[in-house]
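User: Fold this; tokens only.

Assistant: Input:
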Amino acid sequence: MHRLASLRSVASRCVGVVRNVHTSAADYRIPTKENVAAFRTLLDDDASALMQGKSDLEHRNVDWTHHYKGQSELLLKPSTAAQISKILVYCNEHRIPIVTQAGKTGLVGGSVPMGQEVILSTERLNHIHGIDSSGILKSQAGCILQDLQTYCAERSFLFPVDLGAKGTCQIGGNVATNAGGQYYYRYGSIAANLLGMEVVLADGRILQCRSNIKDNTGYKVHQMFVGSEGTLGIITEVSFLCPPLPTSKQAVFLACRTYSDVLKVMKEAKSSLGEVMAAFEWMDQAIVRLVDERHVRCPLPIHDEYRYFLLIETHGSNEHHDLEKMEGFLDKLLSNAAVADGVLAQDLTQMQSFWKLRESANPVMAGAGYTYKYDVSLPIECFEEFAEHMKQHLTACLVVHGDWGHILDGNLHFNVCTPGVTTVDEQVLARLEPYLFEQVMLRNGSISAEHGLGQSKNKYLTMVHDEATLVTMRQVKRLFDPNCILNPGKYLPVA
């Protein structure tokens, strides 16, 4: 049984009408031959900009986790904001639902159709406009994150966002989901670094949100679209403020015997490394062992007593000074026995090998079997207790665990896998949801830290926000998309 079977679908699964899940006033229409002909004209009769047929769109209808599957039979690939504007005017007039699709690297099915919505890909919006002397980068929304990182680095700037999926994800999708990543603690959120954007509204209007470093001239409208997951508009261009590229980087890989030791290391890192600390990644023994066996060798022996592993990176401007700080930090850890073992990267290649291990956690776990992936935030002191509590709760299920996270900002990636199985186990899913989210909320956490809500977590939003807040969210949705054609059935709780 497919995981979506437990969700309320936006599509009727039959030819004809798709019900509006956010309001009770409108019906959606599945595209007809006449609609397809109109879309072709709006795309300037570019044959490569339109694809039809369920078989040809199979990979577009499934996310990388294979948890979510749609039935779309039409894909549009516009290359300009003007084309998107015309498409949305037409969709709005004819009540045709549309889902924006970027790199499909999320975990909650936000960019995958729930039924027969039209898919609009932003992959052709891939032009980098440039970066000025103050570090303001302007690009189209379909640019791959890694391409932006490389472009900035070649010009002595650092793009302030880094994710494990950087080789596939698109910056527009990153903004639309308010993605986090490993440098969140040092450089801040996407919202903090985003200066402006171009976005197309459901009625076809194109908003040009200013990109000044300082601009105090009204509502920060562009921030409304950060984390909105394609439900308020389609982002077509973005502007980011990028800091200078660090000329000095240090990285260390550590093993700890207890979670108490992890907290000691974190406290000492904040004190000793201070302004140069850029990343502090946490992994449990299970995921490190799994990655070591299947993909990337761990730089340390994986002894039974090494329960947790840490990857710490610093960014600075003086290599001698930064190395001195790192060595002083390590000396303090060894003197108080907070770490059991560790290795300091001797060059960039070794540093990259540390990161390859960490960034392999997600695909390696997914490759081991059907994986239930939960991106949540928790008070840092609750990581171990929460994970152990959930493991006890799942003792009746034949599953394996492997957890990691951006521990500095309280972001835990909790993973449960049924080895060798490729489809959902309803017994496991029933043990996990909604119990896991309830336990997160009991610990004053959040059910989503960086991957958003999509079609997976929107039904649990009532756990997080009071009715007044939810009413306000619905009012915002109706203001920007009164006919609810943009990514229907996701983000907000289904009415």
